[in-house]
Amino acid sequence: QVPLVESGGGLVQAGGSLRLSCAASGRTFYPNLMGWFRRAPGKEREFVASASRSAGITYGADSMKGRFTISRDNAKNTVYLQMNSLRPEDTAVYYCAATGPTTNTYSYWGQGTQVTVSS
Known about the structure:
Layout: E1 4-7, E2 10-13, E3 18-24, E4 33-39, E5 45-52, E6 57-59, E7 68-73, E8 78-83, E9 92-99, E10 106-109, E11 113-118
Parallel strand pairs: 2-11
Antiparallel strand pairs: 1-3, 3-8, 4-5, 4-9, 5-6, 7-8, 9-10, 9-11
């Protein structure tokens, strides 16, 4: 199992910003995709964004586009999620996830970090 360690969650007012980080340990771990998901209270898990090793970027719902930016540092096996113009509906537990080196299936998950946006 490859630990994914997230950081950067917290409480912010609407309109504010947060930056989440997720680092994967393991010198020989080269995930194809690293991404972010979120689960709001009472809702299904939702795809937020992903970044491939070759810098291919995919975003989830239109509501996140233009406000959220994912980036990845392959040398550090770290993925970031910059969240701007946060809204109360962005309140959720955000999970980092990673695939194996040759798949698109997320097999590795972080413990989650709480993001709370107050109105």
